[in-house]
Design brief:
The chain is an alpha/beta fold and 297 residues long. The chain folds into 2 domains: 127 residues, Rossmann fold (3-Layer(aba) Sandwich), CATH 3.40.50.2300; 149 residues, Reverse transcriptase/Diguanylate cyclase domain (Alpha-Beta Plaits, 2-Layer Sandwich). Helix content is 48%, strand content 19%. It is built from 10 helices and 10 strands. The strands form 2 sheets. Strands 2-1-3-4-5 form a 5-stranded parallel β-sheet, sandwiched between helices. The protein has a 5-stranded mixed β-sheet with strand order 7-8-6-9-10, with helices on both faces. The chain is elongated, with a radius of gyration of 21 Å. It starts with a strand and ends with a strand.
Length: 297
């Protein structure tokens, strides 16, 4: 049975009652409170699937502080941050700290229900993953998320970014010389190298980023709330980390390099296919320019 319990932190009593009433009609069990401390008391009493919190509470002045405190007390609940346009940078910081989504104020009730539905859907995906010994969402070789999980996450990210004037980016990372590595060292070593590469990319990404195996010798990273300049910095960082890594089984440090193609929503496309096509074209351009680099249009 799906857990539909929600804690809603809102200091304005009128807004709190309005949202509570609407969500109750929609079939959710809502505990409306005015502060972080009140929310903690509710969490002690029951299990909550979603916590919706203001960008600032009576106890904390920054969203990241609120998220950290909730993460310390309750790691299972999904956190949605409610923010004004002048606090959008704090919302982005909250996503980096582990929040799962955000909603703009003043509340559009239909929009809020959609955000909650998307959040619960992603929670269901993660729950299914945890319940399976060999998850449908994990790559067997690298043990990071696979293409199926990438597809689910991209769909949710597009839906979220369509609600607001926000951006996200995709990085496609392709091993430049994987065929050579397989032929020179064998499939077992090649798979071991792929696993290490996945670990390097995962460790170099942020908490809010989604790292997946995209293809036989490709990885993808979805970067929420990130424009091209920020994604370029991340891509450059990953290139540097990969260049520095000593991949066990290879004779030389520089035997493995990668090329990266990038696309951004909505600038490079507003659909799954458009975004992937642009990223793949950028990746091809990186290869043609000599490999071992990041390219975007």
């Amino acid at each position: 049975m799906i857990n539909k319990n929600i804690v809603f932190i809102e200091s304005n009593e009128f807004t709190r009652k309005m949202v509570e009433t609407d969500l109750l009609k929609a079939g959710y069990n809502v505990a409306g409170v005015s502060s972080y401390n009140e929310a903690l008391e509710k969490i002690k009493e029951d299990s909550f699937a979603v916590i919706i919190t203001e960008i600032k509470t009576k106890e904390f002045g920054k969203a990241v502080e609120v998220i950290r405190k909730f993460r310390q007390k309750n790691s299972e609940s999904r956190i949605i941050v409610a923010t004004n346009y002048d606090s959008i940078t704090q919302a982005a910081a909250a996503l980096n700290e582990g929040a799962h989504d955000y909603i703009m104020k003043p509340f559009n009730l239909h929009e809020l229900r959609m955000v909650i539905e998307n959040t619960l859907e992603m929670q269901k995906v993660d729950s299914e993953f945890k319940d399976k010994e060999m998850s449908a969402f994990k790559d067997e070789v690298t043990r990071i998320y696979n293409y199926t999980y990438f597809e689910e996450t991209l769909k949710i990210e597009i839906n979220r970014s369509q609600r607001y004037p926000s951006q996200f980016t995709i990085l496609l990372i392709d091993v430049d010389n994987f065929k050579y590595i397989t032929n020179a060292y064998g499939k077992e070593t090649a798979n071991s190298v792929l696993k290490m590469l996945g670990e390097v990319v995962y460790a170099g990404a942020r908490k809010s980023d989604c790292v997946c195996r995209f293809g036989p010798d490709e990885f993808s990273v979805i970067l929420p709330e990130t424009k091209k300049d920020g994604a370029f910095i991340m891509g450059t960082r990953l290139l540097s980390l990969i260049r520095q890594e000593n991949f066990i089984g290879l004779k030389h440090r520089n035997e493995l390099t990668v090329s990266i193609g990038m696309s951004a929503f909505p600038e490079d496309g507003k659909s799954h296919d458009e975004l992937i096509e642009t990223a793949k074209n950028a990746l091809k351009e990186a290869k043609s320019l000599g490999k071992n680099r990041i390219v975007f249009f």
